[in-house]
Each structure stands twice: as C-alpha cells, then as structure tokens.
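Ticket reopened. Same input as before:
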Amino acid sequence: MPDQSPRAQLSRRQLLKRAGLVGAAAIATPIGTLVPSPSVAQSPAQAQGAIGRGQALETLTAVEAETLQAITARLIPSDANGPGALEAQAAGYIDRALGGALASSHDAYRSGLAAVDAYARAAKGKPFATLSAADQDAVLRDMEANVASGFVPDASTFFNLVRAHTIQGTFCDPYYGGNVDFVGWDLIGYPGVRLAVTPNEQRMDPKLTPTHRSAYENAMFSRKRPGRASREDEMVRWPRT
Amino acid sequence: MATNLTKTDVVIVGLGAVGGVAALPLARAGLRVVGLEAGGWLNPDDFAPDELRNNVRGWPQAVQKANREIPTHRPHASAPYSPRPAIHPMMNAVGGTSLHYWAQSWRLNPWDFKVVSETTRRYGAARIPRGSTVEDWPFGLEDLEPYYEVVENEIGVSGKAGNLNGKIDRGGNIFEGPRKHEYPMPPLRATGFTDMMAGAARTLGWHPFPGPAAINSRTYQNRVGCAYHGYCNRGGCHVKAKGSTAVTTIPKAQQTGRLEVVTQAITTAINVDASGRVTGVTYLKDGTEYFQPADVVLLAAYVYENVRILLLSTSRAFPNGLSNRHGQVGRHYFSHNQGAAVTALFPRDINNWYGLPAQGVAVDNWADDNFDHSQLDFIGGGNLWVYSDRRPIGAANMTTFGRAPRWGSEWKAFIKRNADRWNTAYLQKTTLPYEDNYLDLDPTIKDPLGFPVCRITADYKDNERKVATFIQDKMVEWFMAAGALATEKVPIGTMGPTTHAYGGTRMGDNPETNVVNRWGFSHEVPNLGILGASVMGTSGARNPTLTAQALAWRTADHLAKNWKTIAD
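Engineering reply: fixed in the latest deploy. New output:
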C-alpha cells in the first residue's frame, strides 16, 4: 500500500512535474499506483493510468486523466486551508462517473481535455499538466471568460462542466469515489450524515463532531447502493411494445 | 388488441398525491377501485441520505416514465423553445411526488377563492390584470374546510392554527381562514436559525409562524416523528415520518380489500363509447396492452399528463380530445411564481446543516390581499418562507455575493468560511392564468411510445413580475433585520416544467370556460372526474398539494354519495 497522505501525493506530483514527465510518455499519472484494468480494452498508456487509491482508470486515458487532475487541483487547490480536490480525488470520481451516471458527458471530456492541452500549448508552450500553477490558472481564467479557442461548443461550457463535477467529486458521499477521507466535508464544516438529529444539534453553535461515515455504511442502505452504471438504478423500465 | 380485464367500479389513473388520497373514501364507501400507477413501490431503505443521487442526479425522478415525456416550453407562440430540462420535476411511484416532496401542507387563504370579486369590491374591476382569465372559484374556503381537515388527519399534518372558528391565535397564521379544529400534531421543531428569523420578523411588526407540514412532529398513526436528518428535500423518508400517500391513504385503502394497485402501468388512453361516456382505460404493462373497464374514471396524473392524456384520447365523440368540445383542455395554465428567491449572507454560522424544507418560519403579511393594494400597481403577493436545509454539494455551490472568484484558493477560503453562513428564502407568489398561457401537444417532440409530449406556452406577465419585485424587497428587509451582511436577488426565471403547475382542466360552473364542474367532474363526460392542481384556477401564495388533495377527497366523496347518478 503506497503512502496516500496528501503530502506524499503532492510531493510525487511535484517531483514528476520537475522531471518533466508528460503525457503518454509518463510512467503513470502523478498519484496512485499502476493497476491495469482487465475489464476494459486499453492502450498500454491507458492501462498504466491511475487516479486515486490504486484504482485503474475506467474511462479516461492517462493523458486525459493527468490533464483533468491538474485542472481539479487548481479549481480547489491544496493550500493553507487544507487539502483540496486532489486529495479528495475528484478526478477519480469524474473518471468513474463518466462510465456511469455522467456517461453523456464523456465526449465533452474527450474533446474538452484535448482542447485544454492544445490551448495550453498554443498559449503557454506546454501541455496543461506541466505548466506552472500561475500559467495553469491563466489558462483556466481564459476558459472561464470564454476567450480560450478550440473548444466545442465553447471554453466556458467545458469549464463550468469540469467545475461542477469537481465540486461533486470533492463534496459527494465518499461512496462515489470522491471526498476521500472526508476532506471536502471537513473543509466546509459539514458534520456528516446523521440518521436522526436531536433538537440541540439544530441550535446555533452545537459543536458537532463529524461522523465521517458514508450513507451506505448504515446497514439499512448498504443493501441498496446505487449502481455504478447510469441505468442500474432504474426502478421503472420503459415498456417495449 | 388489448387484453380485456374484469370491470371495476372506479379506475384511478395515477396513485400519487391526489389519486392516492381519492382511493381511500371510495374504498371505504364500498366501491371497488383499481389504481393504475406508472411507477412501482419504494421502501424506506430506498431513501438513502445521498445528495449526489437525490439532489444532483435527480434520482428518483431521473429514471421514471415522466422523464421520457418532459414538456417542452416556449414563452409565447412565436418564441423559440427554452432549453429542455434533463429531469422531469415529478416522479412516478406509488405515492408519486408525495414521496420526495417538501410536504408543506397549506390551506389556501380565503382571498384565493375570490380573487375577482374581492379585487373588484376593494379596488375596482380595472385592477384585474389585462388578459387574465382568472375567475372566482365556484365555492369558498368554507366549503373546502371539512375536506382540508379530513386530509390533514388522514395523512398527518403538523402545524399551529392561527384562526380557530374565528378566534385569532398569534402562534399561528393570523391571516388564515377559520379552521374548525387545531392541527392533528404540533408544528415541527424550531431551530436556532428559525428562532432568529422569527425574532427579526417581530421587530418589523410582522407575524411569523411555523408552517404546516405533512410530516410527523411526533408519533402519529403508528408512524414515528421526523428525524430532521437533512435529506428530506428531493429524497424520500427513511422512517416514514413524511405523510406520503404511499404510507398513509393508500395502505389504508388497501386494508379495506377494495383497492387493487397495478404498478408499472402506463396509461395511453381513456376510452369512450358512442354516447361519449367513459368506458375505461387502456394501459401498457410489461409490453402488453390492457383495457380496464370501469363505470367511472378518475384522472390523477399531474397537470401536464392530465392534459396530455385528455388531448390524446380522441374519439368520434371527442375528435379534439376528451372533454374538449369547448377547447378548454390546456387553457388557464399557470406555473407558480416560485423563482425570484433571495439569498442572504450572515456574519456567523447559522447551523442549517440539518432539518428539512418544511421546518421553517413563514410570514404571510405580504401574501394575497393581506395588505392594502390601493397605492400599488399589482394584485396578490407572496408568502415569505425561510427554513433549515443544507447539504455539502449545495453548500459548496453557494453564491459568492461578488466577494470572491468562483474557484481557486480565494474561493476555497470563501466557502470554508461561509458554507454555513447563507440561506435562501423560498418565496411563493400569486400567479394568474392568462389568455395566451396554455398547454397543448408538441407538434414534433414525442415520447418513446410515439405520443407527442405536452408543450407549455407561458410567460410571467407584468403582475407576476411586479409581485416578485415587491416580495423580494420584503425578504431583503427581513434578512437585513436578522443581521445579514449582504443579500442577492435571484431572477424570476421562465415558466418551464415545474412541480407547481396549475390549470389545464379548470374547475368552474361555466362549461364555456371550464373543463370540470364544481365537484371535479367533466362538464362533457359525466362519469369522468379529474383530480389534481389542473382543476385549480388560482395558486395562492402556497404549495398546492394539500388543496389538490382536499379537492380530490371532495370529488371522491361526491362520487361515493352520488354513485347511481354518476355511474349509471
């Protein structure tokens, strides 16, 4: 089991940056371990890609994952206010969800992440993931302001998509692969899932201890976890005639 | 060719908030009822406290029949279509949207039944907005009061009366019409935040009170009290404290042995004979087409689907759709003026992490005609509602009030500090029907079975926009009185598909302008009743469900008492 502490992840990531390991040539994405996924046909580069706790990439290529992870790390940075999207493994959440509930966004990620890199090369001379934090922020600002070119339909649409999914991946129930170690919930002071809440817990300044439990750690829900695929949840199937 | 089933007395299309209520008085009266429901049964362990699933991805709505038939919307007949939402606001299941609704269970105020006559009396007929088709209801609050009461008792509503037989109690809503009895349960608990807001309202001279909710505040009819866990909003109840019809009136009706619940049944048509009387309902289940004959059909499929099923049920007797000889099906449509909220930023944590949208404090001073409109240029008003409800993804998506960027370290510092320091008020405002706001069938967009979806042509008019501006100012005043640092007004938005839709099969004595009579039965088809907010001609400043449920009970009760006249 590799060291998964935020510091270790950050330092490895920075190490890779300094070493200039980029794109498909990288031996792995900056964090995580190499776990080929046998169930998905992948190129060698894809098979090496990994985001998060030793989990193989499910939908993105290693290059895409590296770019995405770098974006999320700037949207919700690790800083003096504590861990961010990187430690929450928001990119891993997105990678997994793109094979399920967010499948309709997979094409947008494919073309959007390629466009981010293309724009980064054009504007700053290097792929996004290898840029300095300041240059990465400049690229993201251009996307947010919709002045970055090469995006379909446009840069701000993709920016807003990634921002929304990064927030989901940082603040969702950890069941979905994000908010790892509850770093998102701790950041904003959410005291966690409680199945019953007392009157005192609804007064001002209640001094609540975070529960640090997934909803699905409660026995009553563990049997009915949402499926990983988008349609596994379905209770009603459209009748075929 | 459809498989013919054994004839029943009554078939109800849709076992949701209203169909699920109507089944009970019918079954108790000895009638055999078949309830057709497009969804299935859900249980407490289906309702995990999971924000991503419930609130972001829209489960349980997202996987439903309704989601394949989301209405289209355009503001007016020559305007381009609005973007179609990905998720239908309503859901299919036994209990319908009462499974995951907020469960605010309001009675309308007396004025809501008499908008035309009261406005004319007090301010003159010229004050009815131009182009509005609003009519007085065919009866007043006092006629509906007994039905409100029976539904409040059957589904279990908590609250505090403000007017008991004319005696005003300042603990409740002093503007409400007279009630015969107190609510069956006391209100849901107050929180530190709602106490703070109530205090601020009093400093303004307003009259705050706890709102009514179809949620147990204590054990009631063998169901436990609310757990206040924070996932009630668009999530079902894991302890059955929410008085969904799936855990109240439907099981009670089943206990009589006379309600047969048919799940996964997609109604495609209401059938009529040559004389124009309804003969039953055609539905699909598991790929097979069935015909369920019945003496009486009650249509209870929500506003959009009620209208769509009627318009799709064409016949020789009704070539333009069932009960539509006067072209009134789809008219007098309005969707509640629910937009135009106000969000406030406070200087301290307000502990909104737990609770539910029905756990709040209301102010009715600026609703309906509870204040003098002589010097104003609109009629009606809004109910101000603040409540305790917050989940982490929603908290992180808070507005930054122009004080921080939308991402990066500065944003992160902002949400770390302020995630529990903001609150958005829910402002429900008077909405009127207009000549050019209506529902019909979309000419091009179809559901997977090939039937056209419902098309909404509707936009807010001057009166609605003026009410919104006025009410937002009042809400800002309230938040600032409570010590808010800043407020932000949310735009009014469009009139696309909503959980608060009204009209389309309006109730009234005049068959030229209304689809159903004062009892909820079609003016043109004597053995067809229509249930739901589609019969309502005004919105009030309130959630519609309890009124729609009281009307449903009333229609069912009328049917049971006049069975021979209506069924034969």
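Chain A touches chain B through 61 residues (CB under 8 Å). The two ends of chain A are 52 Å apart (CA to CA). Please confirm and we'll close it.
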